[in-house]
Specification:
heterodimer; A: 119 residues; mainly beta; 11 strands; B: 111 residues; globular
Chain lengths: 119, 111
């Protein structure tokens, strides 16, 4: 259980175009999803926290107008990179919170990531 | 105070040996300490996690040791195998909310 999928797994686009990445929790409902960005050989950097039915909370330094997040349902969150530029090329990873054992603590489960390359 | 410091940056261990990765934190409010394993081109996968009410947790070949007074926790991989070669991240959070990540350790197990 607790499987998170991402689509697409990789995407190449031209500079100036927009790219949408989907994150789905396949076998559980996630009221909270997180979006991360990871550069090569570096740790994960939290971009934003997404709660179903409300506006996402962005981390300091992350442009909310550039990285649009929509959490339309309890199993789907989307990240749209608008007017992408080469510096947006990165590995984008989502995670979803799942209730832990006995409902005591939540656990974060991660998607497989999406490799974005902007030419 | 929000940082989690992870060491070493990279580690080479012979097959069958013990791999040890260490993390230290400052924020005493942290109450959840997970370890994640990440293979190249993949998302992180939860390996094992501990809460501060216990000093050790073991799952198969993986053990977390937790020292609350020293504000340190470590991952031990017993009988390390080539398939364990990956990048390992420690993290910490308050009530499972926002994870604060360590910098990662690239582990290579030599056959």
């Amino acid at each position: 259980g607790a499987v998170v999928s991402q689509h697409p797994s990789w995407v190449i686009c031209k500079s100036g175009t927009s790219v949408k990445i989907e994150c789905r929790s396949l076998d559980f409902q996630a009221t909270t999803m997180f979006w991360y960005r990871q550069f090569p050989k570096q740790s994960l950097m939290l971009m934003a926290t997404s709660n179903e039915g409300s506006k996402a909370t962005y981390e300091q330094g992350v442009e909310k107008d550039k990285f649009l997040i929509n959490h339309a349902s309890l199993t789907l969150s989307t990240l749209t990179v608008t007017s992408a530029h080469p510096e947006d090329s990165s590995f984008y990873i989502c995670s979803a919170e799942s209730p832990g054992l006995a409902g005591l603590y939540n656990e974060q489960f991660f998607g497989p990531g999406t490799r974005l390359t902007v030419l | 105070q929000q940082q989690v410091k992870q060491s070493p940056q990279s580690l080479i261990v012979q097959k069958g040996g013990i791999s040890i990765i260490n993390c230290a934190y400052e924020n005493t409010a942290f109450d959840y300490f997970p370890w994640y394993q990440q293979f190249p081109g993949k998302g992180p996968a939860l390996l094992i996690a501990i809460r501060p009410d216990v000093s050790e947790k073991k799952e198969g070949r993986f053990t977390i040791s937790f020292n609350k007074s020293a504000k340190q926790f470590s991952l031990h991989i017993m009988d390390s195998q080539p398939g364990d070669s990956a990048t390992y991240f420690c993290a910490a959070s308050v009530s499972n909310y926002q994870l604060i990540w360590g910098a990662g350790t690239k582990l290579i197990i030599k056959p």
